[in-house]
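Researcher: Here's the sequence for the chain we discussed earlier.
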Amino acid sequence: MRIDFGTNFDLESVKKHRHSSPVDSGFFTYDGTDWRGEPDTLSDPENEIRVIEDNDSQLISGLLHRADPNSKVKDYCYALTFVYDTGYATAGVCSVRKDRLKPWQDLLTQGAIIHYKP
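Model: Thanks. This is the structure I predict for it:
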């Protein structure tokens, strides 16, 4: 699983969302009301995108289905994004078979596994 860090949005950007400042982690976008998968992904109907909010962070996770109409490539990704006061971290693992992502989903939905201390 690869983890990328970014600073083009932070927790304040999410809490005070303005449509002129997009919130996009590469796997998830925030529209001011809800977190959704990227426009080229579909949320898996059996596994809704989950958001765990704390005073100083948000953890967004979910199973997404990607389908590229140009290349005909289809796969599934279990992704998570952690938003904190100075930026965010995002990670995902992808597979052509959804069942291969079940261990990741089971591990990462058992409770808070990421702790952030400023």
